[in-house]
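User: Some background: our group keeps a shared notebook of sequences we're curious about, and every so often someone picks one and asks for a predicted structure to add to the entry. Today it's my turn. The entry only has the sequence so far, pasted here. Could you supply the structure so I can complete it?
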Amino acid sequence: MGLDFGSRTVGVAVSDPLGITAQGVETVERPQENKLRRTLARLEELIGEYQVEKIVVGCPRHMNGDFGERAEKSRDFAEKLATRTGLPVVLWDERLTTAAAERVLMEAGVRRERRKDYVDKIAAVFILQGYLDSL
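Assistant: Of course. Here's the predicted structure to add to the notebook entry:
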């Protein structure tokens, strides 16, 4: 499972059973940035539904490789997720995945007001696919 963790949403993607390709599943809405209970509960449902064995969480680094505030929040989220699910959680460099997702949606002709509905899910696909390709 690949996750694009944001302050208001979490994009979710899963791989095929052979671990070759990533597909977008959904975007989990987060009612409040500091509250994770509902978000973690929904992710646990998806983990069971898709028989997830490992989770890849996007970690947004600065272009120079440094970790910023968002990266720290992603790290904290990954730790909570690992503790709650008991699954291995890998942090994956997600630089420019949201920009790439926006570009794909523009090229596909998705209207600007609809892009926000898909961008996090597509970014999660890029995160997971990048991880799968590295294997």
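Suggested note for the entry: The two ends are 15 Å apart (CA to CA). The longest strand covers residues 22-29.
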